[in-house]
Design goal:
The chain has 15 helices and 15 strands. The chain is of the alpha/beta class. Strands 4-10-9-8-7-5-6 form a seven-stranded mixed beta sheet, with helices on both faces. It has a four-stranded antiparallel beta sheet with strand order 11-12-15-14, covered by helices on one side. Helix 8 links the parallel strand 5 and strand 6. Helix 5 runs antiparallel to helix 12, helix 6 packs parallel to helix 12 and helix 7 runs parallel beside helix 8. One of its GO terms (molecular function) is transaminase activity.
Length: 451
């Protein structure tokens, strides 16, 4: 039966009637109805298969087949990573190169020194975490639930007590203390959390911690650098102050800070005071922006940012807090709850111990005091001039040469420091020398400088 319909090389009489009828209706059917013939040889089905081939060549069905293939490609693309080098159409803010990445070559030079490298380029602690803090961390290590973004009441009360004992700050309510995952994340995200955006100005010191600028760039705000005592310009939404300064160690007096606060308030700007080094005064006593001589007795528009990385060796724990204007702190808390910016519960307990115990901080201060004296004497003996540096963890030093030439000169002696250009254009002839190395490494650096 040459003209009979054959399916899978069997006569139509041997197939269920419904299957045969469906195939005979191909001409009036919809795309995709020819599955019974898929992959079969044409000679086995005679003229009917030729009819189907003509049908599949019709423009309408060709379009359906193209669309089906494109749909499959789109579905596949959703589940495959983009090929290397292929643009996805997404782009974040344009940020500068991470400064310390540019030290790679000179870091290799310093590490090649026969006596090993003395790393003084980053202010990272090297001394042990005090036992009282480690015990507090472990004491709640079996708490499985989510911690509170606002922190425990014990933590907030400990912060209030530490501000009073250590810095003479009174009038802070424990409800207005908010723990942060270290201070850097708050510095970077504060413009975002406050709603700063394009068209706003973020004012920062002329020589400043690089993350102040990065935080402004993340939201597309304009950055303006201010000389000491210079008032912020119109349009300023946020102004950073930093005393003691990183990198210079300069200490701003109470009246100078009060003048900055008055100027910012006249513009309706928020003043964020980075007070990470407040406990490390050497030749001058730093004051908090919340000191009544600075604030005028009111916290309106003020935020005080603190870190335990330096004084308690908790850089690895990421432990800090912010306090000040109750309305601003509530706003930060609200957003951080939504964003999941939560300090782990064990770190919260470690902070309680660090803020309650003053003895370990006094011991750490003494270590830094000794290292500072050794390094300063050695630098000055090698022809450096140390400027400012009245407080903090750094010596701001110059030989009068280009900053990068000085970095290289020191790297050849196995000492790695940071160029002043990391902190602003005005740092082009200075280097920042950190005190954060062991006593043995500090003594080694001093010997190399005096050789």
């Amino acid at each position: 039966m040459p003209r009979r319909l054959h399916l899978r090389r069997r006569a139509d009489a041997l197939h269920p009637p419904r299957r045969v009828r469906r195939l005979r209706r191909l001409r009036t059917g919809l795309p995709g109805r020819g599955h019974l013939l898929r992959g079969r040889r044409s000679r086995g089905v005679g003229g009917v298969h030729e009819g189907q081939r003509r049908l599949l060549r019709r423009p309408g069905l060709a379009r359906w087949r193209r669309q089906g293939r494109q749909g499959r490609l789109r579905r596949r693309a959703r589940h495959e990573p983009p090929a290397a080098g292929r643009m996805t159409g997404l782009a974040g803010p344009r940020l500068p190169e991470f400064p310390w990445d540019s030290l790679t070559r000179l870091g290799e030079v310093a590490r090649a020194h026969p006596g090993g490298v003395v790393t003084l380029s980053v202010g990272t602690p090297v001394d042990p975490v005090p036992e009282v803090i480690r015990e507090a961390l472990a004491s709640v290590s079996d708490v499985p639930g989510y911690p509170a973004t606002h922190g425990t009441s014990e933590l907030r009360e400990a912060a209030v007590g530490a501000l009073r004992r250590r810095h003479g700050v009174t009038g802070v309510d424990a409800e207005d203390v908010l723990p942060t995952i270290g201070s850097k994340e708050l510095v970077a995200w504060l413009p975002t959390l406050l709603g700063v955006g394009p068209g706003d100005v973020v004012a920062i010191p002329e020589l400043a911690y690089p993350t102040y600028e990065v935080g402004a760039q993340l939201v597309g705000a304009e950055v303006v650098r201010l000389a000491p005592g210079e008032a912020p310009p119109a349009g300023t939404a946020l102004m950073w102050v930093n005393s003691p300064s990183n990198p210079t160690g300069r200490v701003a007096g109470a009246e100078a800070l009060a003048s900055s606060v008055r100027a910012a308030r006249a513009l309706g700007a928020v003043v964020a005071s980075d007070e990470c080094y407040l406990a490390l005064g050497w030749d001058a006593q730093p004051v908090s922006v919340l000191n009544p001589e600075v604030s005028g007795g009111a916290f309106d528009g003020l935020l005080s940012v603190h870190s335990l990385s330096k004084t308690s060796n908790l850089a690895g724990y990421r432990a800090g807090f912010v306090t000040g204007d109750p309305a601003l702190v509530r706003r930060l808390l609200e957003v951080r709850k939504h964003a999941g910016m939560i300090m782990p519960r064990p770190v919260q307990q470690a902070m309680v111990a660090a803020l309650t115990d003053d003895e370990h901080m006094a011991v750490q201060r003494e270590s830094y005091r000794r290292r500072r004296a050794v390094l300063r004497t050695a630098l000055e003996g090698a022809g450096f001039t140390v400027e400012h540096s009245e407080a903090g963890l750094y010596l701001w030093a110059t030989r009068g040469d280009d900053a990068w030439d000085t970095v290289e000169w020191l790297a050849e002696r196995g000492i790695l420091v940071a160029p002043g250009t990391f902190y602003g254009p005005d740092g082009g002839r200075h280097v920042r020398v950190a005190l954060t190395a062991s006593d043995e490494r500090i003594d080694t650096a001093a010997q190399r400088l005096s050789a």
